Amino acid sequence: MLIKNFKYPTTLIILFLIFLCDNSYASIFIKNSSIDLGILKYNETRKVETYIVNKSKDPLAIKNIMKSCACAKIDLSQKIIPPGLQAKVSLIVKNDSLKGKFTKKIYFVTNLKTPRFLSLTISGTAQQFYTVEPSEFVYLGTVNTDAPLQRILTITTVDKAKWGIPVISPLKSANVSISAINNNTWQLEVTIKPNPKYSFFRIQITLPLISPSKISPLKIILTGNVVKKP
Question: What letter would DSSP give residue 171?
């Protein structure tokens, strides 16, 4: 009955070709091609598995694997997948190079024209060891050169931490002190001393972590405008 509704033969030909392409493409696919990891804790390594399925009549070869980040280690059980079989894809995802909500792509390059690429998406939320209130990037507005500006930032960690000496860039642009409120909360007091030679300032405060180790230093950026007292 649907065929009777088409007025032009060319429409049928086009739909037939689309069907053939879609049918061919559907015979080679990745099971669960979109994997949501949920919350990935700051020191967590997550292992997940999926499969590349070949339901076509031809052997499928995976010639290359491309990924958009270094957060995942990929192992393929076999690079040549005979017709009717499948290959296991093992992923090991680490939190060390991820931050906040993320979506990463992994592409498997095949020996076929269609599909040339098989796409696998991994997503989730990477928990950070530390958070800063109000933010790691703060615009402070206008600062008068004759009246240094003071700000207090709060740093919270998911575990006990020991901080090193703050590093300020550029030097002498601010005074910084850090004090503990409890085992997981610190107060960072910053006094801005902008250079009167410039109308804008950008100050980076780097806080190295002594413990736990192997966690990147916390970097806080403070920006604002400078005005001279008339």
Answer: T
Name, in order, each residue with C-beta under 8 angstroms of 213's C-beta and a sequence gap of 6 or more. none
* Burial bucket for residue 218 (CB in 10 Å: 0-12, 13-18, 19+): buried
Half-sphere exposure of 195 (CA within 13 A, CB side): 11
What is the pairing mode between strands 117-126 and 86-94?
unpaired
Angstrom distance (rounded) from CA 173 to CA 190: 10
- Taking a C-beta distance cutoff of 8 angstroms, is the pair 17, 101 a contact? no
* 175's tokens: 């005074």
Phi-psi region of 38 (alpha: psi -120 to 50; beta: other; left: phi over 0): left
The residue type of 208 is P
Is the per-residue pLDDT at 25 higher than 80?
no
Task: Round to whole Å and give the CA distance between 188 and 219.
Answer: 12
pLDDT tens digits, 87-101:
999 999 998 778 889
Q: What is the pTM of this model?
A: 0.68
What span, in angstroms and rounded, lies between the C-alpha atoms of 66 and 201?
A: 40
- Taking each continuous run of H as one helix and of E as one strand, the counts in the chain are 1, 19
Q: Give start and end residues of each alpha helix (H) in the chain.
A: 9-26
Q: What is the pLDDT of residues 171-182, one digit of tens each?
A: 788 899 999 999
